[in-house]
Design brief:
four-stranded mixed sheet, 11 helices, 10 strands, binds octanoyl-coenzyme A
């Protein structure tokens, strides 16, 4: 598929994807959502870490496209929400780490996209918020589900009911992002983090992600049993043999992803 609104680069296991709709501060219209869905569905095995960011210096994603949503009736609104929620869930379920490098506005659907990623790091100029109720709607790309899980119900409800926009330092304080960097450092720091992940065993990272994602919604006994099953699966991999042999022989591990 030819992408009108996505730019991407592959570099030794790391893929950087930029959402690029400069006229609307990278707001997500249904074409972008379909392109994202296609992109995520066609990531090949060469990509071991995905970094998502916004094109330009001002915005990560300034939300869902309000000019498109303004024309929707109830079933169409529900369908638009379903499309966004589906592609964000696909991103969340990718078997590789996904880092959001939030370079500017992450509002509404932009904040929700960042939350579907495994890890968020931000530029000091980033701004976060769920301003939907000011438009007469609620967060519809799974923000009411993910925001309370990430930062707790109390602050999530404050953000969603007030629609207030918070700065990167506040997003760091409440745990919405892991780190804040100067704008010019952000992509380098994202690449550094991705490079650290690349050194480790890809299957182990995939199973750890599965254990965290699936375990989070289970009760303690089921979550611990799931982890135990996945932990056991590691011992069927060459990477486990290699990682432990390398440690015992005081040499760096050379993982093959098998
Ligand atoms: N949708 C469409 N166009 C947008 C959006 C958007 N979300 N955000 C910005 N733009 C456009 C502006 O209309 C403007 O276009 P133009 O130049 O043609 O007038 C251009 O981008 C530049 O924007 P501004 O001139 O407003 O730039 P400022 O620097 O003054 O302000 C802001 C930047 C603060 C980001 C401001 O543009 C803004 O408040 N944008 C809207 C933010 C927002 O409310 N986002 C949430 C949208 S709702 C949502 O995401 C719901 C997700 C769930 C959907 C469920 C489906 C049913």
């Amino acid at each position: 598929m030819e992408y009108q609104f996505l730019k991407f680069e592959h570099n030794e296991g790391i893929t950087v994807l930029k959402i690029s709709a400069p006229k609307s501060l990278n707001a997500l219209n249904s074409t972008i959502l379909k392109e994202l869905d296609d992109f995520v569905g066609h990531l090949d095995a060469q990509t071991r870490v995905l970094i998502i960011t916004g094109d330009g210096e001002k915005s990560f994603v300034a939300g869902a496209d309000i000019s498109e949503m303004a024309l929707l009736n109830e079933p169409q609104g529900q369908e638009f929400g379903r499309l966004g929620a589906q592609v964000f869930r696909r991103i969340e379920l990718l078997p590789i780490p996904v880092i959001a490098a939030v370079n500017g506005f992450a509002l509404g659907g932009g904040c929700e996209l960042a939350m579907a990623c495994d890890i968020r790091i931000a530029s000091s100029k980033a701004k976060f918020g769920q301003p939907e109720v000011g438009l007469g709607i609620i967060p519809g790309f799974s923000g009411t589900y993910r925001l309370p899980k990430l930062i707790g119900q109390g602050y999530a409800k404050e953000m969603i009911y007030t629609g207030k926009v918070i700065r990167a330092d506040e997003a760091l304080r409440i745990g919405l992002v892991n780190a804040v960097y100067e704008p010019e450092e952000l992509m380098g720091k994202a690449m550094e983090m991705a490079a650290m992940m690349l050194k480790n065993a890809a299957i182990a990272i995939r199973l750890a992600k599965q254990s965290i994602n699936e375990g989070y919604d289970l009760d303690a006994d089921d979550a611990i049993a799931l982890e135990n099953k996945l932990f056991g699966q590691c011992f069927a991999t060459k990477d486990q043999k290699e990682g432990m042999d390398a440690f015992l022989n005081k040499r760096p591990a050379a993982f093959t992803g098998e």
